[in-house]
Design brief:
The protein has about 475 residues and is α+β, with helices and mostly antiparallel strands. About 20% of the residues lie in helices and about 30% in strands. It has three domains: about 150 residues, Sandwich (Immunoglobulin-like); about 140 residues, Sandwich (Immunoglobulin-like); about 110 residues, Cytochrome c-like domain (Cytochrome Bc1 Complex, Chain D, domain 2). It contains ten helices and 25 strands. The longest helix is centred in the C-terminal third of the chain and has 15 residues. It starts with 10 loop residues before the first helix and ends with a helix. It binds copper (II) ion. The site of copper (II) ion has 7 residues, from loops.
């Protein structure tokens, strides 16, 4: 952060601070007011060839809004939108940031801009009670596309309620001109009700901690950018998307169905990749993607973790108008009957989907998979455990003397002092969410491996233990 004066010149700017309340009053750059835009719009490109002092005024609010049809949510916002207003400055600019917290807010808020070089990205300096305005200054040292977000405790909750947006620091040489620029930010939301459950839905902290999202959306709601709210372009145009991921938890596998990114500014930085299908956008990160649209149609923007797109809302649309180009894409040109190997209806082989074991050998085989997925991390590959932490399942007298104690450990969890082969353990095994069949199989697997006593446990026995 270079705007702090060095020791020799400390006093002059300090006096300036005292009299103007503003360090950068000492600089002689021209002052301009930043143009801020709501999503999906982007402020115009900067065509200055010099640094400026840029004043940014942004307001935080807590307001009820639509998260899906029939479902409302109390969003916390920067500039009355989720994501917050798009901010565009130029590398080398000196920024005066004024954060106002609306008097109707119940919470204090602040802002951590990832474009800031300085403690907390401005968080401490911008901590603002309801009905107050805080001012701090920073210099935009590094070009790139950056997330900003609220960082007031509990931080996860402020972010989960929609307090994030993007700030673009244009490189000194500028960005290549394009025909269209749009602004999208993905976010995950956690509500007491399940996806689509009607009414005003409160935030669910437990689901947020579990990262069990009900909604994963672009620009704050299901359908924010679909149908009549779609992004638009014309055939032959180049589109640039500024894409962020506010999180709080999930990573985005950003993809446009039916397009290939000609250029991706990887992670929003200076590295350019080309011919990319899907780009990863971390929580608290961003990317710039560019592509020319060659053919008309509706192009679907998704998080390619695909259930999020079709079942939780992470879907937007770009509608492209213009003439077809059959040398690039023809559409369907023919449909014929397809009868491989004669006309008999093929039956699917069931053996892969069957989950019920018919005999002990199958139980052992299925149980091995359950073990590898659920137990091995603690009890280790050969059941040897880890001394002092996880007791052995190999030759365990505790288990072999009464396999149902193992069943209980899985159903209810196990904690407190126990003795296995005369060694004391006092750890915590969490209850495992497995069905009766899986539990019967995994215990049977363990009993028949690693020099254990053999025998078997049935799903019926497990069901009895649950009572
Ligand atoms: Cu906040």
């Amino acid at each position: 952060m270079k705007i702090q004066p060095n020791k020799h010149t400390l006093w002059l700017p300090l006096i300036a601070i005292l009299f103007s309340g503003n360090l950068l009053a000492a600089s002689n750059l021209k002052t301009e007011q930043a143009i801020l835009t709501p999503p999906p719009m982007v402020p115009p490109a900067i065509n200055r060839d010099h640094s400026a002092k840029v004043v940014i005024n942004l307001e935080t609010r807590e307001q009820v809004g639509r998260i899906a049809d029939g479902v409302e949510y109390v969003f916390w916002s920067f500039g009355e939108t989720v994501p917050g207003s798009f901010i565009r400055v130029r590398e080398g600019d000196e920024i005066e940031f004024n954060l106002s917290n609306h008097p109707s807010s119940k919470m204090p808020h602040n802002i951590d801009l990832h474009a800031v070089t300085g403690p907390g990205g401005g968080a401490e300096s911008s901590f603002t009670a309801p009905g107050h305005t805080s001012t701090f200054n920073f210099k935009a040292l590094n070009p790139g596309l950056y997330i900003y977000h609220c960082a007031t405790a509990p931080v996860g909750m402020h972010i989960a309620n929609g307090m994030y947006g993007l700030i673009l620091v244009e490189p000194k040489e500028g960005l290549a001109p394009v025909d269209r620029e749009y602004y999208l930010v993905q976010g995950d939301f956690y509500t007491k009700g399940e996806f689509g459950e009607a009414g005003l839905q409160p935030f669910d902290m437990a689901k947020a901690i579990d990262e069990d999202a009900d909604y994963v959306v672009f620009n704050g709601s299901v359908g924010s950018t679909t149908d009549e709210n779609s992004l638009t372009a014309k055939v032959g145009e180049t589109v640039r998307l500024y894409i962020g991921n506010g999180g709080p938890n999930l990573v985005s596998s950003f993809h446009v169905i039916g397009e290939i990114f000609d250029t991706v500014y990887v992670e929003g930085g200076s590295l350019k990749n080309h011919n990319v299908q899907t780009t990863l956008i971390p929580a608290g990160g961003a990317a710039i993607v560019e592509f020319k649209v060659e053919v008309p149609g509706t192009f679907i923007l998704v998080d390619h973790s695909i259930f999020r797109a079709f079942n939780k809302g992470a879907l937007a649309m770009l509608k492209v108008e213009g003439p077809d180009d059959h040398s690039i894409f023809t559409g369907k040109t023919a449909e014929n009957v397809y009868l491989p190997e004669g006309s008999a209806i093929q039956s699917l082989d069931n053996t892969f989907t069957k989950i019920t074991a018919n005999n002990k050998d199958e139980q052992i085989r299925f149980g091995q998979r359950v073990y590898e997925a659920n137990c091995m991390a603690c009890h280790q590959a050969n059941g040897e455990g880890i001394p002092g932490a996880f007791p052995p399942l190999a030759k365990s007298d505790y288990l072999n003397n009464n396999p149902l104690l193992g069943v209980n450990a899985i159903i209810k969890g196990l904690s407190g002092p126990i003795k296995v082969n005369n060694v004391n353990y006092n750890g915590v095994m969490p209850a495992m969410n497995l069905n009766d069949e899986d539990i019967a199989n995994v215990i049977t697997f363990v009993l028949n491996n690693w020099d254990n006593a053999g025998g078997k446990v049935s799903a019926e026995q497990v069901a009895k233990q649950r009572k």
